[in-house]
Amino acid sequence: MSIEGEYVPSAMQWVADQVAEYEASGGTRANTLRETGIPVIIVTMRGASSGNVRKIALMRVEHDGTYALVASKGGAPDNPAWYANLVADPNVMIQDGPEPHDYVVRRVEGDERAQWWERSVAVFPTYAEYAEKTDRDIPVFVAERTD
Prior knowledge:
Elements: H1 13-24, E1 40-46, E2 53-59, E3 61-63, E4 66-70, H2 81-88, E5 91-95, E6 100-107, H3 110-123, H4 126-133, E7 140-145
Antiparallel strand pairs: 1-2, 1-5, 3-4, 4-7, 5-6, 6-7
């Protein structure tokens, strides 16, 4: 399954630039969150409202070939726009290196969420600060490979 259609880059120029550079280099450049050195993955999805192809870079939280997608939005009171995309269509592509693969996502809760949250905070400790800043329960999705 390939996500096809018109690609609309992020309105945030630095995100659009990072996605473009990551993909152009097969994941050898622009593969960390700015100057942090923390690895990222590129997630391709379909826009919930527009139907357009959307791409974002997210922290690389991986365990046994499965990834966590943390909808933190920096601890803002609302979910990131891409949250609605995953709820509307759980089929995504994830690029972690030279080529993308197909995945299906599901939101995790309870003990499973706690386990993935712990893994996520281990990769990016700032997630814990984001959780303290907001009253919402930061959604965590798990992406499992389908191809």
